[in-house]
Amino acid sequence: MPQLDFANPLMTTTLLWLFLIFGALYFVLKSYALPRVATVLENRAARIRADLDAAQAAQREGEAALAELRAATAAARAEAQATVAAAMADAQAKASAQAEAINARLAAQVDEAEARVRAARDAAMGALREVAGSTAQAMLARLGVSAPARTVTAAVDRAAKQGAR
């Protein structure tokens, strides 16, 4: 290779300048440029570490807030269920009280109606006894038998008692 002809006197000066330029470049890079790049890389790594730590802290805070939210939701749900249960019990108690009041009123009305029916039945039975007594007197008179009214009434009463059994 003709470029590396060491017999040429210019070659030694070229090599000398090569070593001087690369030496100076190495010294400048080592002394000034590379420390600045290293500082920038260290700052960047520190910032990334700080951001990761902040993200992990925020994640822990978020998980804690989520756990707190879930606990608050569960407590609110339990409270709501208790309130609903209390309202249901109160409504059932009121409905039961109203049903008892209605039942008592209906029972009183039924008792009144039964008393009126008994009174009407007794009045009808009384009228029926009178009619039966008059009819029995009329039949006996047609047959030509005379009987005292007291005897005929007693016979009608006995017949009514036997029919009632």
User: What is the 3D shape?
Assistant: rod-shaped
Class by SSE composition: mainly alpha
Nearest-integer average pLDDT: 89
Oligomer: single chain
From the N-terminal CA to the C-terminal CA, the straight-line distance is: 152 Å
Order of helices and strands: HH
Flag low-confidence runs: none
Q: Please tally the helical runs, counting DSSP H or I stretches of 4 or more residues.
A: 2
Radius of gyration computed on alpha carbons = 62 Å
- The proportion of strand residues reads under 5%
Describe the largest sheet: none
Quickly count the domains.
1
Number of E strands: 0
**In percent, how helical is the residue content?**
over 70%
Structure description:
- The chain has one domain.
- The chain is mostly helical and 165 residues long.
- The chain has 2 helices and no strands.
- Its main location: membrane.
- It holds the Pfam family ATP-synt_B.
- It is a single-pass membrane protein.
Summarize the structure.
The protein is mainly alpha-helical and 165 residues long. Helices cover 92% and strands 0% of the residues.
